[in-house]
Amino acid sequence: MALTQEDVRGIADYARIALEGDELAQMTAYMNDAVAMLEPVLAYNLPDVEPTFHPIGDLSNVMREDAAAPERDLARDAALGNAVATRGDSFRVPSILGEGEA
Amino acid sequence: MRELKEVLEDWEAVIGLEIHTELTTLDTKMFCNCKLTHDDEPNTHVCPVCLGLPGALPVPNRRAIESIVKAGLATNCEIQKHSMFYRKHYFYPDMAKNFQTTQGPVAFCMHGRLDLEVTGRGAEERPACAFGEAEAASLASASAGAVGLSADLSRRADSQPAPTGADACAQNDPAPNDAGGTALAGLSSYDTAALATAERREDGSYTVPIRILRIHMEEDAAKMVHVGGEEGRIGGAAESLIDYNRCGTPLIELVTEPDLRTPEEARLFMEKLRRIFLTLGISDCSMEKGSMRCDGNVSLRRRGDAKLGVKTELKNLNSFKALHDGLAYEICRQAEVLEAGGEIYQETRHWEPSRKRTVVMRTKETADDYRFFPDPDLAPFDLTDEFIAHCAAEIPELPDAKRDRYQRDFGIKRADAEQIAGDPACADFFEEAAAGLAGKAAQTVANLIVNELTGYLNAAGAEVTLETCGIAPAQVASLARLLAEDAISSNQAHEVFTLMAETGDDPAKIVDERGMRQVSDTAALQPIVDAVLARCADQAQQYRDGNQKVLGFLVGQCMRESRGQGNPKLFNELLRASLS
Amino acid sequence: MARSFDTLTAAEIAAGIAAGDFSAAEVCTAALDAIAAREPEVQAFLQVTPELAQEAAARIDAARAAGEALGPLAGVPLAIKDNMNLAGTRTTCASRMLENYESPYTATCVARMLAAGCIPVGKANMDEFAFGSSTDSSAFHPTNNPWDTARVPGGSSGGSAAAVAAGMVPLSLGSDTGGSIRQPAALCGVVGMKPTYGAVSRYGVVAFGSSLDQVGPFGRTVADVALAMDALVSGGRDPYDSTAQDVVPGFVAAAASAEDLAGTRIGLVPAFMEAEGLTAEVRAGVERAASALEAAGAELVEVDLPHVDAAIAAYYVIGPAEAFSNLARFDGIRYGYQEPGCANLAQQSALSRAHGFGDEAKRRQMLGAYLLSSGVYDTYYYAAQKARTLITADYTAAFAQVDAILMPATPHAAFRHGEISDPTQMYLSDMYTISLNIAGNGGIVVPVGLGEDTGLPMAAQLVAPAFADERLVTYAAVIERALADAATGAPVLGVAPACAGKGGELA
Questions:
Q1: How much is the ipTM here?
Q2: Are residues B150 and B126 in the same domain?
Q3: CA B107 – CA B144 distance, rounded (Å)
Q4: What is the pTM of this model?
Q5: pLDDT more than 90, % of chain B
Q6: Are residues B272 and B421 in the same domain?
Q7: Domains in chain B: how many in total?
Q8: Beta-bridge partners for B60
């Protein structure tokens, strides 16, 4: 069940990666090669094996105290300093129209 | 459009709520040490973690976890010892990482329940046909999975074939497909058959259990301001500005089962939950400031139908009134569409209080795919018995228990007890003011708190709270004593209260200094009565001829004669005696 | 008498500065000179930071003058992989996306190395966002293997490995998600170590696969790597990394304790030694290491890792899935490349990401976004995490029989630039390193001389149980000493010959 260019275009839209020119065809070929390479893992979907989401399994309940650490705060200039577009004290994005929210 | 009451005779409204509460009483954010803030300059409480900078990592706030466990215990949830944080992906700039850290199929709190007492006019919204067996059938066929609550995780499940009809009752497992059944294996689910159903009492009131699907822990998003569009809406906006101060604020989301059947029940649920959270001290629960927010899901089905209708999701229900009125409007709108042979679309709608209508925000043609997976940066949780016991030990007396105690020990009216017990500061105030009192004396204190004190605080504005207003419980106790002794009339009480609030003086002092003390001495009042009767012989004759109403006029004359200080009840008695 | 700074180990530099043989400023100048002389051929750096280095050196000299105690790495020049934040430098991840990104804070691993006295001389080249095994996917330039500049240094930490192999620095930091420290260490003929997942803080290291990434050091000797490891774990568990754990700094002691290995059992995996694609010279190198361990008294035992054949597939499910998630934040809004002139946000995000990321970064994210999608997730992601359980259990079972496992690090010596062009073919070259990232335990790569066919560096890899990383330096030190030059005691491979002694004289 190979991925079609239409499938790949849908994933690219979701992942916010514009595919231009022959990139769609190349990406589709890559995706199908890569997925084929993953085949061996399918044999391991065994009902009696628990998945390991976190390696080194005995770690749990890691929490911190509810205490401020002002030294971690970024000065506003530093916070905004790497942004290409700002307005006043805020980050700026262009019109969100077409994002599906009103 | 038809009236709500009329619509609900024909249609059953199936309502579920999603309630987000910011844990505003914490000092710091969910996963970083930034201070919580509501109105500081933009982007002044941000760090690499909440700004989603490359390389930053989250560390959970212990008190946030304690808070949600308390919220779960106080709402009769099962506390899940084992749970994980998940990443929920969506590209939107209010989430700095383009994913939200939230919980998976197993939340810290699962399968809770709150009982709602619905009384008075609000109880009339539920029609007579919605009790007893009909209600039991209704509950069994409505459940979270079936109605497709837009809880984060069921969105993932949305893409699965929707269950229909009789299958629906088995479908209250909103687990994403990753759960593979194993993650939820240890969870008991509810037994709908064993759930008490609403029965109407003679006075029209009823009690209904509302099931809570889950309460999960997550982080809040940044604030966005849309510039150049109409009323700050995105439509037409040329650009949007982002302030990440709020981003990462600890947030708990409670999802109810679709057990609510009227807008009033929804409003009461929200009020009750707010009282509980206030009592727990986990949030300021301000709907106005947005620290407590509610979305409603509503669908209609013909009375007696098992198959659920298509639901819409309502946003901008940011007051108790908006919650009630928005749902009421939407129910009537859906009924009108359906009765005209139309179709309801699964969509998100925005309540516009000024225009009293809901408008479409977005239509969900396809289910969102949030690419949930367990967050590898956060270790799993295996809460210990000690941790849960520690949380339980910190839970104060909850509003229902407090209400019952006030009714039992102080003998005050249940409605007043409910109101006072729901606000922790108010409850403390009452207990101090009414210490050692019972029955009528305690009720007088309750009346002063419910009417005078609440009215005063409401009029004083948001900056003045019970703690900062300067009124002491001893003053209210003293005022209640003056009323009990008939030293002042209940009309005078309002004036004395206002003076007391302004001056900070003891009410007894105010009354004495201003000569307001009521005269209840028969010997002093009889001459006034005699004088009035002599002057108003016509009216006296009318009374004797059977016109009872004229007595009020005569009492008024006596009060004037006594410069307001005579006891009106005593004047009344003396006049009747003199005229008989 | 002038001598090149590259003949000194990190330990010798720190000792020389402490003794007053030379100053930190002199070492700093020598390192910057060596970089200037050798960098045109090697191109290991994306940014050289002379001001930061000189400031750090001046602080150390001032501290010594004031009689203050010096850190164990005082005055040792350090190269830092460019996915690690260091305030005052750009952190680009070798990507156009972050070409102008100024680090607003410093990663814990970097801060700890600096606290131990290291002087930061620059940010090292890498595969873009650490996706690769050649460093050729850097958006800015490739890095050349100092042993043969027509060949790759390996990757993704290729710049860090090459800088050490070329003698520009005695120590560097890399990160290892599927072999990104161990494979370039092997290809460049230096020691490289991936500690157990959680041993070193990941805070401030730009994430690729959060459950796989681990930071570790490169050095020319096992003792230097041990010094760096002690510095990295000193101070205990980093409170800013929820997955970090406490490790006692006992690496220097463990490296020094390499004596008699009687009673030690070292595992060999027959399937690995006989694998298709493993070259004879690499196998011979691993056998030299095995003989060295045996000669020191260790017993060699065959062990089996039956599920390890699923490791590559599991890795290319988990890695891309986590990478998609971790790289979602690069949308050009808060930082990073932003496409100019876009009418709306959706277009701006899609074009910023399309033009900011290179091909491999886009491929991995696309694969990850697909693998996490509804329905597909069940089939692949869940299966991969179950395979992870089985692979971890394989290692646990093996370590019930042996103290460590010896295996190749790579199937072959360094390949030529462009020699492996098919991405999925490139993925297969990680066959010996990937299973450790899946299971989480640590591994070390130690040079075993030059290959008889290629004349290029050969290496062996040792693998230990989780949080038994100090064993790795002990056994690696045994191998190192057994293969050392009998006359001088110098390790079997030093600075790459074409670079050795070029610039960097220490007066």
A1: 0.96
A2: yes
A3: 15
A4: 0.91
A5: 60
A6: no
A7: 3
A8: none
